[in-house]
Amino acid sequence: xxxSGFTIVRNAIKYNYPVVESINSILPICDEVxxxxxxxEDDTLPLIQSIQSPKIRIIxxxxxxxxxxxxxxxxxxxxxxxxxxxxxxxxxxDEVVHEADLPVLKRLMDQHLxxxxxxxxxxxxxxxxxxxxxxxxxxxxxxxxxxIIRNNGKIRSFGDAYGFERQDGRPLNRKSTGCxxxxxxxxxxxxxxxxRRINAENIGFTSLTQEERERxxxxxxxxxxxxxxxxxPAVMGERIxxxxxxxxxxxxxxxxxxxxxxxxxxxxYKTGRRIKFSL
Length: 279
What we know:
Helix content: 25-40%
Oligomer: single chain
Number of strands: 11
Number of helices: 9
């Protein structure tokens, strides 16, 4: 069995993507990792080249921004076309896998290698927000998604590259991994978050008011969101330690919930029910 990892990346430093952590999180179980590096305004390419692994293969492309919201899936499919594995493991550059889940994922891929009825493997999402110890599970934040697909030339990325589809139009046959996918796209300083939202607007993913473009983003009162008491992927250790808002939030959580069994056991868990928040 051969496993290919793949992703696309552009302006990783400018927008603070944890791309190195993302790649390193799945590198141990991948036989190759295809990195489609777009033309950037920063040192994204040298950053990617600094990852010392013979498994990594870099391709470079100039992104055609006139493609709008399809640009991400188009670039993702270019990376997918370079994959040679039986399975293709896709991570966006702000998504990270916990090391404890790697044996589970590899075992599932091996177990279903010859089971052509399985097209993809699905993850449960943890959308961290503002703090590495808070997450979103309210309406509008998808909670499940496919990230490992059978590399048979019949499956492609679509839309804004959040998921995959069969090219013949039939629904994907997927199997749940039971594993969490750690999404860190909304854990940044307020000024970086504003720049990321402006970038998303330029591509066509959202629409902002002039005030939203000019002021720093506000996360508001983080205490209204569920607490994550579990561990994070080890590769994220330094980022978490160096994030002031998270460290302040953690102190408040430990002071208020010192007695909580989830805090003591550090179980990797998220609530399974949708929660309404007043924003």
